[in-house]
Specification:
Elements (H helix, E strand, L loop, with lengths): L2 E9 L3 H19 L2 E6 L4 H7 L5 H7 L4 E6 L9 H13 L4 E7 L17 E7 L9 E4 L7 E4 L5 H17 L9 E6 L8 H11 L6 E6 H10 L6 E4 L1 H15 L6 E5 L5 E5 L16 H13 L3 H16 L14 H14 L1
Parallel strand pairs: 1-2, 1-3, 3-12, 5-10, 8-9, 8-10
Antiparallel strand pairs: 4-5, 4-11, 6-7, 11-12
Helix pairs in contact: 1-9, 1-10, 1-11, 5-6, 7-8, 9-10, 10-11
The site of 3-isopropylmalic acid (IPM) has 4 residues, from helix 4.
């Protein structure tokens, strides 16, 4: 029987609550599909930092490389300097394991969740390939004369040919194998800001270079500001989007709202063939922490993405299919903290449906 080693970082705020439901789901599908796994839990979060002043040590990053996959809840705490633990844990994973793709599906499961008028699940079904190791997240920069009237703050946007090329290639490969909607051609849209930020033209060229290898895939382009407009006006135009780290961060929060809210959006931080990390895209939501109100569907869908990555395709389809069926059933009025369904009850609804199917 196949067995997987899965690292778990429940994280801060609502992280542990949603991860607990995600693990319930994992247990249910493992049972049905007949695979095994071992969980390896890691304590790195903001409370751990406040207690011990310990961030993620380098040897732990080496240990993570030996796992099959990692599941992360959320990081962020009001009592810790913004970004400190996020950089250590989230960016530590992304950069440390070279997880160069951040894959973020934008899929509307049921019309009642969508804030747009007259848009249906057929109209909102695209996927964002966010470059995940470069751009304005490079951590290259700093302050000069900090806290004086002469302060200078600098940050470098780093775009390498290798980074752009491999993100573009992933996007084109994904487009050529994604299920088609009607007779629409597979399409990859490059989203950048190469008009104002001229070095973004490295993306233009890497994209065109990769496109030559995929004659069956249509190419498109949108500047990021226009992309935001089209995502609201004509989301049905998008199939696969490839974009920079920061733009991918921003447009996928917008995308999450098209799906019904942050509570449903999931992501995979992927290095094909190597240990990869899966997480809901929402944050730690401190105001909802410990209240058993957060929606666990994003974390549950992250488990689905993890199973797909591990090659457990049938198990992945069970998770995604069940989330879809549950949302279409009308039993879940919304995918936010005001749904009236507790975190644990929603997790149980998913597990019950998985067992009955
Ligand atoms: C995300 C988050 C992170 C990011 C933060 C917490 C560092 O917003 O995963 O989208 O900016 O990538
Ligand atoms: Mg974000």
């Amino acid at each position: 029987m196949t067995s997987y080693n899965i690292g778990v970082l429940s994280g801060d705020g609502i992280g542990p609550e949603v991860i607990s439901e995600a693990l319930k789901t994992l247990a249910a599908v493992a049972d049905l599909e007949g695979f095994q796994y071992e969980l390896v839990e890691y304590p790195y979060n903001s409370e751990h930092y406040l207690k011990t002043k310990e961030l993620v040590p380098d040897r732990v990053i080496d240990e993570w490389r030996t796992l099959d996959a990692i599941l992360l809840g959320a990081i962020g705490h009001p009592d810790v300097e913004p970004g400190l633990v996020e950089r250590s844990v989230i960016l530590g994973l992304r950069f440390g394991l070279d997880l160069y793709i951040n894959l973020r599906p934008i899929k509307l499961y049921s019309e009642h969740l969508c804030p747009l008028k007259n848009k249906t699940p057929e109209d909102i079904d695209f996927i964002v390939v966010r470059e995940n190791t470069e751009g304005l997240y490079s951590q290259i920069g700093g302050h000069l004369k900090k806290n004086t009237p002469d302060e200078v703050a600098l940050v470098n946007g780093v775009y390498t040919w290798k980074g752009c090329e491999r993100a573009a290639r992933y996007a084109f490969e994904l487009a050529s194998k994604r299920p088609r909607r009607g007779d629409a051609k597979p399409t990859v849209t490059l989203v950048d800001k190469a008009n104002a930020i001229r070095p973004h033209d490295i993306w233009t060229r890497a994209f065109a270079h990769v496109a030559e290898d995929f004659p069956e895939v249509k190419t498109d382009h949108a500047y990021v500001d226009a992309c935001c407009m089209w995502m609201i006006k004509n989301p049905e135009w998008f199939d696969v989007i490839v974009t920079t780290n920061l733009f991918g961060d921003i447009i996928t929060d917008l995308g999450a709202m098209l799906q019904g809210g942050m509570g449903i959006a999931a992501s995979g931080n992927i290095h094909p063939g190597q240990t990869s990390m899966f997480e809901p895209i929402h944050g730690s939501a401190p105001k909802y922490a410990g209240k058993n109100v957060a929606c666990p569907l994003g974390a549950i869908s992250a488990v689905g993405m993890m199973l797909d990555f591990l090659g457990e395709t049938a198990a992945a389809e069970r998770v995604d299919g069940t989330v879809g069926d549950l949302l279409r059933s009308g039993e879940v009025p919304s995918v936010d903290a005001r749904s009236g369904i507790s975190t644990s009850a929603m997790g149980s609804m998913v597990v019950d449906r998985i067992r009955k199917a």
